[in-house]
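Onboarding guide, step 5: your first structure request.
Type a short instruction followed by the sequence, for example:

Predict the 3D structure of this protein.
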Amino acid sequence: MIKKSNITLKVSSLQLKTLDTYEANLDELLSIIDRSDSQLIVAPELVLTNFDYENFNFIADFYQRALNSILELVGDKIVVLTLVKKEKENFYNEAVVLHKHQIVHRQNKYKLFTLGNEQKYFKAGEEAEIISFEIGSIKYGILICFELRFKELWQRLEGVDIIIVPARWGKNRKEHLETLSKALAIINQCFVVVSNSSDDDMASSSAIISPWGKSFHNETFKVIEEEITLRDIQKVRRLIKIK
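The system replies with structure tokens like these:
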């Protein structure tokens, strides 16, 4: 068995524009997954539909069809995205982690962005859903967009190796996204993978950030790729003891 500290992982953080139709967005995501040799692929928040509030019932119908298409293709890769899901009369912004044709983790967005009126359309998830989960010997956690601003949620994910942040973060607060993401990586001494929309009003800023605070990013790319090694986590936690 490979020692955890010797594990390397190729990661892709997507930085996509919203296309004209849900199907076009799905086709683009499927094409990226199919062509990629990354082991972890993270897509922006609501990458397939955006916050299309006027068509929420149609979006909910699209949920299972889209999910089935991605599950069929995912294979040994790990794919993370969020989708609009309807349960009874409530709509949720649900993060799903797909691996080996299964959903291995799911959580609903807990902190809704009131400035964007998300609370009018979505039901909030529970804080208790924000927990670490393991795939292989790597420990992951997820914060969905606005949740990145809450330090008590950072604490819920202490000790994980990789924190994933699917986001649809506005351009006006671009510096906040970049600063908070880097601070989270340094404070929690882990890798942070941010995937944000590149729509005209969005910040882009998708990045793969090391526990040392080094950020791999490129505003012109649809896909930011980097190979990471978990040895970096072991080094920083051994040299800079904060627990």
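Each response can be followed by summary notes, for example: The chain has one domain: 10-239.
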